[in-house]
Amino acid sequence: MNSMNDTGVVAGPASGRTSHTHRLRGLVGTGFIATLAAMVATTLAAALAQAVGVDFQVPDGGETIPLSGFAVVTGFFSVVGIVIAAALLRWSARHLAAT
For site-directed labelling of 87, which of 5, 42, 78, 80 has its Cα 20 to 30 A away? Predict the structure, then answer.
């Protein structure tokens, strides 16, 4: 709720760094939980596919992709997504503050 003091300045609710930091921490925390869930889900899906006979062999080299490889790649690109989301959150906060 906004109120006007005797100088004519509208005083609004306190916002700024605390709210921005809280939103950033929430984004990162949720992102890491989602990353762990995605890593488990992709590894489980690969294990189930392998159990029914799907072959994860690379055509040229003939090497088989290990199950841990699915978790590592999923985790890496999920973290990349978290970094992009955090950068966009920071950029949008700066953009809104400048207007």
Answer: 42
85: buried, middle or exposed (CB in 10 Å: 19+, 13-18, 0-12)? Answer: middle
Q: pLDDT tens digits, the chain, 99 residues: what are they?
A: 555 555 555 555 555 556 778 888 999 999 999 999 999 999 999 999 999 999 998 888 788 999 999 999 999 999 999 999 999 998 886 666 666
Residue 71 sits at the vertex; the CA angle it makes with 68 and 74, to the nearest 5 degrees, is 145
C-alpha 82/C-alpha 34 separation (Å) is: 10
